[in-house]
Amino acid sequence: MSALLLASAAKHFRTPKFYYPVVPDYLCRRDEPGSRPNGPLAVMSREEWVASSGLLEVAAAVGLLVPATRKVAADATTAMFTAFLAGHIDALRRAYGPKGTDAERRIHTVRLPLQIPLIIWSWSLRK
User: By CB atoms within 10 Å of each CB, which of 19, 33, 115, 117 scores lowest?
Assistant: First the structure.
């Protein structure tokens, strides 16, 4: 799990645009002059959300490697993957919307169910 998290975190910084579709619009601050806010949760830009989640994955990976922090890190990793479900659901909804493409439909149809084994796996690391 730590290796997977570190690889994913590295991808957050190497190719952040890969993760842009799974950051819901309602979380993204709009920085253009005269634009209306997306809502109370829109506290960071899409880029900042991707970078922050990459840093969280690094912290989770390290926490899972340290025996004294493994249980807390497993709980936090489970919560993180569970929270990521919202982004994957939103991306899937948009992929099947009028502007969605066949490629987006395929990608997000596969990405969403992959969260379930990750949640179960991270939960199992609490032992």
Answer: 33
